[in-house]
């Protein structure tokens, strides 16, 4: 019997498994599809909330810790697997910021490097970027990661560990209980028993917990993105304008995102979103008007009240933990949220105060 059973193989689930394995635990991870292929694959990989000063302290605390963890994690995975997550720390240019005073106040309070810059500065950093029509800000420390490769590296590392078992293409069909305590899960590939359980199912977490009659207020929120295959070097760093962004990869791929759509579990793409994303891309980098769109896809974010994830044990099932509801910031918050969850599972001193994230009866009752 495995010590721990993780339900969900996205970045949150895989980082949880890796941290538990580092602590000497035996872990089984069950994934309904292929590890790292849902929201973890579909996002942009910016290692910060888009406008971090607009978030409350619970999200900000996790974000600040995670941002510092990514450089080391990326180097570790590259050395262990030979797969480069392509962590890039080239900063972010914010164009047309209408609450720049609030942003600068936030940065001063935290000692973060953030400055108001001129159009000439923007042109020097990114010659192809549009001239800002309003205030522009520069954050030199912001990084990004190539999230599909991060997922590949995490999966490869877990697959190489003798005390980790990955079970993919496996649906969870219900929980097994004995005298009111969860002892296992029924799956499409047979029963799996364990001592402790961690639900990391992203947008599907609520449906997984339906099997325990637990209502988790996490819902799917669709996001469509596009990518251009541009000449390498056309854009060097993340550029954000009016809520949309361009993210460069080292091989010239330029990601543009993203939409926010309440569409249930529908992941289809449409021409209206494509046109909107193209307009945004060309408003940020006008030269993209001459480049064809190479890819167009959609993913499902795990939306939650105020974007604050649920991290901790369920009130009525103390051996069942949840780590879900990161909304737009799954990759951003993953290192800290998984560390905090593992602290609770193993009874260690927590990374930070877990109270705001606990799946209490009050939080579970949120609309």
TrEMBL record:
- The source organism is Vreelandella piezotolerans
Which molecular function terms from Gene Ontology are attached?
glycine oxidase activity
| SUPFAM superfamilies, per the entry | FAD-linked reductases, C-terminal domain (SSF54373), FAD/NAD(P)-binding domain (SSF51905)
Q: Which UniProt keywords apply?
A: Oxidoreductase, Thiamine biosynthesis
**Gene3D superfamilies assigned to the protein according to its UniProt record, in alphabetical order:** D-Amino Acid Oxidase, subunit A, domain 2, FAD/NAD(P)-binding domain
Q: Which Pfam families match?
A: DAO (PF01266)
Annotated EC: 1.4.3.19
Tell me the ranges covered by the FAD dependent oxidoreductase domain, including all copies: 4-343
Pathway noted in the entry: Cofactor biosynthesis; thiamine diphosphate biosynthesis
- Report what the protein is called: Glycine oxidase ThiO
